[in-house]
Amino acid sequence: EVQLVESGGGLVQPGGSLRLSCAASGFTISTxxxxxVRQAPGKGLEYVSYISDGGFRFYADSVKGRFTxxxxxxxxxxxxxxxxxxxxxxxxxxxxxxxxxxxxxxTDAYRGQGTQVTVSS
Length: 121
Hints:
- The protein is mainly β.
- The chain is built from no helices and 11 strands.
């Protein structure tokens, strides 16, 4: 059974940092693209980052230079290191399994349950 379990969210002050984790089971992350997407209150899902099966990383302009996505194949886990957080980063963050070369919007993309990140003073 495919599972994605996100963790690491919480409340942080502006300028602070958090590291999100996504533990995968039922498949091998290195054979898929993995993505982080987020949903702010009252808004739709928004792409944050991808890591390809070849290890290439892509970021939305809104997080480029502040967020870093990585993966640990031995632990079958992907991460999102978030630095210099802003109030507009407040959202539920979801980990998504994407077929190689696909999109997080694809019907066969698999999304976890999410973890809440709140950036506020």
